[in-house]
Amino acid sequence: xxxxxxxxxxxxxxxxxxxxxxxxxxxxxxxxxxxxxxxxxxxxxxxxxxxxxxxxxxxxxxxxxxxxxxxxxxxxxxxxxxxxxxxxxxxxxxxxxxxxxxxxxxxxxxxxxxxxxxxxxxxxxxxxxxxxxxxxxxxxxxxxxxxxxxxxxxxxxxxxxxxxxxxxxxxxxxxxxxxxxxxxxxxxxxxxxxxxxxxxxxxxxxxxxxxxxxxxxxxxxxxxx
Length: 225
Known about the structure:
By secondary structure, the protein is of the alpha/beta class. Helices cover 35% and strands 12% of the residues. It has a 4-stranded parallel beta sheet. Helix 7 links the parallel strand 6 (182-185) and strand 7 (205-206). Helix 6 (159-176) runs parallel beside helix 7 (194-201).
């Protein structure tokens, strides 16, 4: 039997409901978490992060998770795609940082990305995972309930309001770019709203849980899907 998947967690206090990457019940395989003390949402969700500081925290905590038995690693923020190659080069075990890795694995599809922050998701984040830098993007509004909880690191979550906001953002994206036939959720807090978005847009959605199901299956040698 394979060991657990390790997840490098930002230093947050917001609720982690089922479907969120930070809730162990979101997975049907074993996971272990490690909080990166002092590295919060503002450190990750940034167009111009302190890359040496964030990378140092990722590497140190990746090594600790590997020592604790993790057979592979992911992160609790899709913006950490920026460090995919650097972290993979220094991690003792394989790494899949972000759901943005889906994009290069969807040849022939016209992909749109729903993100926690369109303002901060830059071409560099896409380039870091081999995705087209001109991929269409929609973000959750900066004055939204979503932003207050997940960007502002608030202590409460209004699930119903956030679901409405996520659906509205997804609809707006496909209305602006009607050629989009597939959506990718950058944000690891968005999977609880996947079904609602699929129903509202008529497009399939790929999220971090899908990515990690396949990633872990490859690590464990099983035929998980």
